[in-house]
Design a protein that fits this description.
The protein is built from 11 helices and 15 strands. The protein has 351 residues and is an alpha/beta fold. The protein has one domain: Ribokinase (UDP-N-acetylmuramoyl-L-alanine:D-glutamate ligase), CATH 3.40.1190. Strands 4-1-9-10-11-12-13-15-14 form a 9-stranded mixed β-sheet, with helices on both faces. It has a 4-stranded mixed β-sheet with strand order 3-2-7-8. A two-stranded parallel ribbon has the order 5-6. Strand 12 and strand 13 form a beta hairpin. Bound molecules: 2-keto-3-deoxygluconate (KDG). The site of 2-keto-3-deoxygluconate has 11 residues, from helix 1 and helix 8. The site of 2-keto-3-deoxygluconate (KDG) has 11 residues, from helix 1 and helix 8.
């Protein structure tokens, strides 16, 4: 029995020995990355039963990924080895302090994970979980991977709650299809997480109501505004009435009144959304890479524990804070008792 299954590619990640452009970095340190395994590892470290499903090569990088992810307590029994394709790797630089930009170079075309498909990843590997976590990165890997996401998100009795992190990686989408492909997949999920920066890039808006109109499908839509706030628009039980927001719990100053209107699906038939906004704690950022995955893990942890919307967002922020203050893509989350104490602090501490 597992709580969460995360399906997606992981890579051996090479972190720079010093800041600056890639051309000037003389050495790299090996670590691991991969949005979905980051979420699985963080959830396992936070005490949940997590499974990671993927494909890796029969090379030493595949061994290292399997060993490292399993050491977090993640079930890797459904990861398959591909003798014909390599494990993906990637190199990155540190973010530039002024612009927050960093360089990423992927060596993952034709990787073992890009051969994930409905044939190589049977539905049985995700069946029975409470949550299935997927991301938009998988959709960029190959047509087979896209077909797999379609298969896994198809409506069927007993389907786990599908969580979809949009995770737009511009370097993987050269053909201009990302906006439509990612919108369509996100709309098939039950829970969607998206950053305001990627929403702007993909769909030209980060306004919560406008995003809700684009994505009427998911019962919950989480919009993360980097260091400022995270909010969730959640469909309340279907009841008649005009589209709109039923209430707010914790308003952090944004998104402002325009973000609170017309937030239900375009038909309004599913009832209004409840809007909950939680400001992010201030932290000294070491590396922002992986913070989105940690946020997703915190939010999902809260979901598994049946916490209310404000607590789910706060746990998302707390796990993101741990990732923001660590150099790699993956960081140990705060211990649950400590996270619960921090999440329970009053609005003055969270303001
Ligand atoms: O979410 C952090 C990821 O960017 C990183 O771990 C690698 O999955 C990855 C990707 O495709 O960028």
């Amino acid at each position: 029995l597992v709580d969460v299954v995360c399906v997606g590619e992981s890579m051996v990640t090479f972190l720079p020995s010093r800041p600056g452009p890639l051309a000037d970095v003389p050495a790299f340190t090996r670590a691991i990355g991969g949005a979905e395994s980051n979420v699985a590892c963080t959830l396992a470290a936070a005490g949940h039963r997590a499974r990671w499903v993927s494909r890796v090569g029969t090379d030493g990088f595949g061994d290292h990924l399997l060993d490292t992810v399993a050491a977090y307590g993640v079930d890797t029994g459904a990861v398959r080895r591909d003798p014909h394709r390599p494990t993906g790797v990637y190199f990155r630089t540190d973010a530039d302090r002024a612009t927050d930009a960093h360089e990423v170079v992927y060596y993952r075309a034709g990787s073992a994970a890009s051969a994930m498909s409905p044939a190589t990843v049977p539905y049985a590997t995700v069946a029975g979980a409470r949550i299935l976590h997927l991301t938009g990165i998988t959709a960029a890997l190959s047509a087979d991977c896209r077909a797999l996401l379609h298969e896994l998100t198809a409506p069927r009795p007993g389907r786990p709650l599908v969580s979809f992190d949009v995770n737009h990686r511009p370097a993987l989408w050269r053909d201009g299809t990302a906006p439509e492909v990612l919108r369509e997949l996100a709309d098939r999920a039950d829970l969607v997480l998206v950053g305001t920066d990627e929403a702007e890039r993909l769909w030209g808006t980060a306004d919560p109501a406008a995003l809700r109109a684009l994505l009427p499908g998911p019962a919950a839509l989480v919009v993360k505004d980097g260091a400022r706030t995270a909010l969730v628009l959640e469909r309340t039980a279907a009841r008649p009435g005009p589209p709109g927001v039923a209430g707010t719990e914790d308003t952090g100053g944004t998104p402002g009144p325009e973000g609170s209107e017309g937030a239900a699906g375009p038909s309004g038939a599913t009832g209004p959304d409840t809007l909950t906004v939680v400001p992010a704690p201030r932290v000294e950022v070491v590396s922002a890479v992986g913070a989105g995955d940690a946020f997703a893990a915190g939010f999902l942890s809260g979901t598994l524990r049946g916490l209310d919307a404000r607590a789910r967002l706060r746990h998302g922020h707390l796990m993101a804070a741990a990732a923001l203050t660590a150099p790699g893509d993956l960081a140990a989350p705060p211990r649950r008792a400590r996270a619960d104490r921090l999440a329970a602090l009053g609005a003055d501490a969270w303001g």
